[in-house]
Amino acid sequence: MAWFKRTDKGIKTSTEEKKDAPDGLWFKTPQGNIIHTRELKNNSYVCPDDDYHVKIGSKEYFEILFDNNQFKELDANMTSGDPLNFTDSKPYPARIEATIKKTDLKDAVRSAVGKIDGQDIVIACMDFNFIGGSMGSVVGEKIARAIDHSLKNKIPFLMISKSGGARMMEAGFSLMQMAKTSAKLALLDDAKIPYISLLTDPTTGGVTASYAMLGDFNIAEPGALIGFAGPRVIRETIGKDLPKGFQSSEFVLEHGFLDFIIDRRQLKSRLSTLLRLLKN
Amino acid sequence: MVLEFEKPIADLEQKLQEMKDLAQGKSIDLSADIQSLEEKIKALKKETFQNLTRWQRVQLSRHAERPYALDYIYEITQDFIEIHGDRSVKDDKAMIGGLGDIDGRSVMFIGQQKGRNTKQRQERNFGMANPEGYRKALRLMKMAEKFGKPIVTLIDTPGAFPGLEAEERGQGEAIARNLKEMFKLTVPVICIIIGEGASGGALGIAIGDKVFMLENTWYSVISPESCSSILWRSWDYKEQAAEALKLTANDMLSNKLIDGIIEEPLGGAHKDMKTMSKTLKETILKALAELDKMKPDKRIETRINKFCSMGVVNE
């Protein structure tokens, strides 16, 4: 016989008496560690128990990097056109509109100018939430203009990449954004203005094959997926399972394509030091 | 190999041949019939090739008999010396290059190369270059720049190779570097899509003062098959994907993403290789004459501005 007996039937708590327990108060890392979101935020969105770097967007990176979260956003209102009248399961403009509504973002990159420890910097940061961080005309154009701002004001440029690659719905146009951004980086090169490229989880496809790999410094967060072809495509091509750690930041560093890997909690101070060393 | 839409034409052509054989052997006069059949074939060809769907053009771009980069190069040059290797890892046989002369003018040729038979295809890796291929291409471009020779690239690839070693050796970095460095080249650069122009693998040698596409080729960010598998989650929508991607020469020109279309002989480049090569050569020489008039700085500036103007946004 049970020691506990319920006398009343059903739940009798009235609506006013119910306690509010909001969603997303706790975060569980892939290794199973649980951390309070406020704690996570105070820790640059890295789990202190297993150093897991939570995927974050431009809002969080700007907050982590810019002094006092002060910055001037560039081209904040630029949105995507539909040059090809592209329709798959739904029309491209409808997809864009729905994504804008859902994410409160205008497209997959935001750019801004501000300071890191008092040193001027232009930062363009991708948002994976916006159609997989895919690169279409808006991404290409905003990055191009951010680089123009760097050129004009002789300010170092930091690009934070997080993308699945080019945006299919803009087909030929999105392909040419690889060319456009590389052209601007060629000008930045000639002007001898530093360009730091930070690769975060994931950075693949046309983004890897253009601006993400063109930094004077190519740096990455630990454990990020970085590659040209996606793991699934490679697996299908070679017909074999991929080795453990393949295409991770550590793998890419080992093969000589990254300058260093940086824990997000030290990101700002390391960038600050790097900028200072380049200047003095 | 005969494509589905080429079949009615091929059937009539066979009939014509039979008729001609028949007429030759005996003393019957079939010339009237032969003439009428010839006219019929011509009309059918015109009708078929004027109304090709985008997918049919993709099929033509991959036609097994289509001329490849080296076919054109040997056809249009007097002398050609092939140059190998990236001076670092190996010689990528999917990416070829060398010095040749057209009408007495030396040109650095670079291009992806496909194979004709199984053995060759394997050796050429189906025209899919590894990072060392892109690095070899860049080495040759720098050499051309050093000796003041213009560069002509012939693009024909289903994509950069998505393999294990390609990733280890930095496929992304190799392509990215080419994009940036090609904008700085002081010599004229002419890029021609002669078959397939798939994504970054094509773009990696396609930053030019003039970018042309042959009439029956495609150039886009992804192949119709892969696009279908990603957006429709099935391989069956490749025709729809080809339509949606707007990947033909006409599409790319009307969107101002290329500079011109090079006309193919009726029936496609593979039907008349000599005429095709002649048109190709004339296009190259004409473009070179135009680019020669510009100073290197001006050429670079124009090249950069052209690519930077590509894209459609709302503000």
Global structural class of chain B: alpha/beta
- Which whole number gives the mean pLDDT of chain A? 94
User: Rg of chain B from C-alpha positions?
Assistant: 21 Å
Taken together, the total number of domains of chain B comes to 2
Query: Which H/E pattern describes the elements of chain B?
Result: HHHHEEEHHEHHEHEEHHHEHHE
Shape of chain B: globular
DSSP, total strands of chain B: 9
What's the story with the biggest beta sheet of chain B? 8 strands, mixed
Description:
- The complex is a heterodimer of chains A (280) and B (315).
- In chain A, 35% of the residues lie in helices and 18% in strands.
- With 280 residues, chain A is an alpha/beta fold.
- In chain A, the strands form 2 sheets. In chain A, strands 3-5-6-7-8-9-10 form a 7-stranded mixed β-sheet, with helices on both faces.
- The mean pLDDT of chain A is 94.
- Chain B has 14 helices and 9 strands.
- In chain B, strand 2 and strand 3 (105-112) form a beta hairpin.
- In chain B, helix 1 packs antiparallel against helix 2 (31-50) and helix 10 packs across helix 11.
- Chain B is globular and about 70 Å long.
- Classes of the chains: A alpha/beta (280), B alpha/beta (315).
- At the A-B interface, strand 4, helix 4, helix 5, helix 6 and helix 7 of A face helix 7, helix 8, helix 9, helix 10 and helix 14 of B.
